Amino acid sequence: MLDDLDKKLLDILIRDSRTSLKELAQQVGLSSPSVSERLRRLEDRGVIRAFTVEIDPQALGYTLQAIVRIRPLPGKLHIVQKLIEEIPEFGECDKVTGDDCFVARLFVRSIGDLDKLLDRIADKAETSTAIIKAQPIRRRPPPLDMPNI
Amino acid sequence: MLDDLDKKLLDILIRDSRTSLKELAQQVGLSSPSVSERLRRLEDRGVIRAFTVEIDPQALGYTLQAIVRIRPLPGKLHIVQKLIEEIPEFGECDKVTGDDCFVARLFVRSIGDLDKLLDRIADKAETSTAIIKAQPIRRRPPPLDMPNI
DNA sequence: AGCTTTTTGTCCAGGTCGTCCAGCATTTTA
DNA sequence: TAAAATGCTGGACGACCTGGACAAAAAGCT
């Protein structure tokens, strides 16, 4: 499992993944080779899936986001899933229990694009679309230490 | 807007945000001070929101994820939103058009925890919960270059 | 077009940072 | 209790980053 030092490192990296080893080292009270080794192990174990960058979709022209619930028609599940995966505007897709088989996030530049993209699966699935008006919580990792539930 | 070099830099950083300036520089054919300057500008402009790290929720003990649709009772919208924001297990929350006011992602350690967390808002909102069975597409940024729609 | 201003780039030098390695302490296994 | 394995440190060396002076290109103005 993860010890306190690992959690402290993750906590710093969540806020800035470009923090130098030296900086990390002094913040957790280790030498930089130790920190380097710990990061390597966290990556090897799959705890750290990737060091990445969060980009503002607006800066890329994606002014609209939608949550799309997708219910494939009988026998079309696999075709629909493949279709979704191949459309790069889908920024996230979960397969869930219940009537709606998939819940996905769609980035688009305009309502027109939204319509065109949904048309591609319209003959293979029923969809319900909700436009995102605001984001009270933007993507964030689960708590590092056990919260009181 | 973003030129080709910016996009190339972002593309590399999406895959590994700890890539050194030197490495970035030779991949895009600039000097490292130039790359450093470009990154600074991208951050200033808000194109880059954060350099961060993607963590496997399982490694933190969160073995279960759910998509929760939340419909606050009349007059309770603001209290509900505040409540959601204060619960750290919500890893994402969007305010959307339609009957469901919020669509949120919940990280939990067990079905028991899921029940306890939803109980906290049960008297202020109606909720429908779908357990995530698989993730065909994990969170990814929108395409950097215009796709043909 | 010709000039000025602004933006974006390079090069270089000094200082910082990361990695490798040997050695030590602590814990685990036999 | 000894042996092995793990995880740490410090220092040396090489790689990397930063800041400043200057050059080139792009944009704006007359």
From TrEMBL, chains A, B:
Gene Ontology biological process:
regulation of DNA-templated transcription; response to amino acid
Q: Name one Pfam family in it.
A: AsnC_trans_reg
PANTHER family under this entry?
A: ASNC-FAMILY TRANSCRIPTIONAL REGULATORY PROTEIN (PTHR30154:SF51), LEUCINE-RESPONSIVE REGULATORY PROTEIN (PTHR30154)
An annotated Gene Ontology molecular function: sequence-specific DNA binding
Query: What keywords is this UniProt entry annotated with?
Result: DNA-binding, Transcription, Transcription regulation
Q: Tell me the SMART domains matching this sequence.
A: HTH_ASNC (SM00344)
> Which organism is this protein's natural source?
Mesorhizobium mediterraneum
Q: What is the name of this protein?
A: AsnC family transcriptional regulator
